[in-house]
From TrEMBL:
This is Secreted protein. It comes from Bradyrhizobium macuxiense. InterPro entries: Formate_DH_TAT-contain (IPR014177), TAT_signal (IPR006311), TAT_signal_bac_arc (IPR019546).
Length: 69
């Protein structure tokens, strides 16, 4: 009976430490989100240029997922 209590306590300690570690990791990942926004570096011509290209892999995606084409 005594061995079972030690195992249970070990699991609880592990889960507590894992939870604290997850909170610390979340705080570390959230730090860059607080940084100030930067200005856009594209010119007006670059913003208006065509970007979409219907390549072979895009056509295959549409075909496989049965999009009307």
């Amino acid at each position: 009976m005594r061995d079972e209590r030690k195992t249970t306590a070990g699991r609880r300690d592990f889960l507590r430490k894992a939870g604290i570690g997850a909170i610390g990791a979340g705080a570390t990942l959230a730090t860059p989100l607080i940084a100030p926004a930067q200005a856009d570096s594209e010119t007006d011509d670059e913003k208006r240029k065509a970007r979409y290209k219907e390549t072979d892999h895009v056509k295959a995606y549409y075909r496989v997922n049965r999009y009307p084409g």
